[in-house]
Amino acid sequence: MEGPDSGSDFPAGLADRGSRLWREANEAWQLTPAHLVLLEEACRITDRLDVLNTIILRGSADVKSNDGELPDIQGVLAETRQQQGALRMLIAEIRQGQTGFAPVVPSSEQEATGVSDLTARIAKKKAQG
């Protein structure tokens, strides 16, 4: 099923942030079919993180439960951290598998990171003396 401005088969069942990630990633990159599968999973994790965040916010808003105890959201926080880690790894894998990539030029306020940026900085340093 094609979604609006998706550029690729739009996965069913994505919420707002997952849909936005799908659309923007497909606009920015040309991914292989295997990496599109990874992107779909990244979009689902993005939506899942929104749900977990809602649970955390609801738990912190209910300062005390009926029995006067603070709500236990430690399990939700742990799951959130695991989902964030999984999302970070998926995005890194997707970025490595993209085709037609135009590297992002860092702004003057941010120092570039990564192997290609390090290589450029070393070359610049050698040229300076």
Largest sheet: 2 strands, antiparallel
The general outline is flat
Rounded to an integer in angstroms, the radius of gyration calculated over CA atoms is 20 Å
In helices, the fraction of residues equals 55-70%
Strand content: under 5%
The total of beta strands comes to 2
| Terminal Cα span | 58 Å
Structural features, described:
With 129 residues, the protein is mostly helical. The chain has a domain at 16-104. The chain has 4 helices and 2 strands, in the order αβααβα. It has helices spanning 16-28, 33-61, 74-97, 115-128; strands at residues 30-31, 98-99. Strands 1-2 form a two-stranded antiparallel sheet. The N and C termini lie far apart (58 Å). Residues 1-7 and 105-110 have low confidence and may be disordered.
